[in-house]
Amino acid sequence: MNYEVEDYRKPKKEPELGPWSSYSVPKKFSVDYIIKMFLYLWIVPWLFGFQLTALGLLFNTVIYDYIYYRYIKYVTSSGV
Predict the structure, then answer these.
(1) What is the largest CA-CA distance in the chain?
(2) Is-above-0.90 flag for pTM?
């Protein structure tokens, strides 16, 4: 048996995210998602003296959610 070539460990099961419109954040990333969502939608605008409208919050939430979805896909696919 050649241990340098054959890997007998069980492969880690990656979360199946599906399409962006219907995915849910995996449990592993949930706390990070909530903290960053609060930070980017409330704290950073407040530090710069901005106040987002309801429509601005909606658009920023959608944009942030899409960016975080792409981040999760990248991290889970590359094994980082």
Answers:
(1) 64
(2) no
Q: What CA–CA distances, in Å, run from 62 to 12, 44, 68, 80?
A: 30, 17, 10, 25
What is the phi/psi pair of residue 69, to 5°? Answer: -60, -45
Ranges of H-type helices in the chain: 30-38, 44-47, 54-78
The residue type at 13: K
Contacts 24+ apart (CB under 8 A), 5-12: none
From the CB of residue 72, how many other CB atoms can be counted at a distance below 10 Å? 19
Please say whether the beta carbons of 41 and 57 come within 8 A.
Answer: yes
Closest to 44 measured CA to CA, from 53, 34, 36: 36
Structure confidence by residue, pLDDT tens digits, 43-76: 999 999 988 899 999 999 999 999 999 999 888 8
Residue 1 pLDDT > 60, yes or no?
A: no
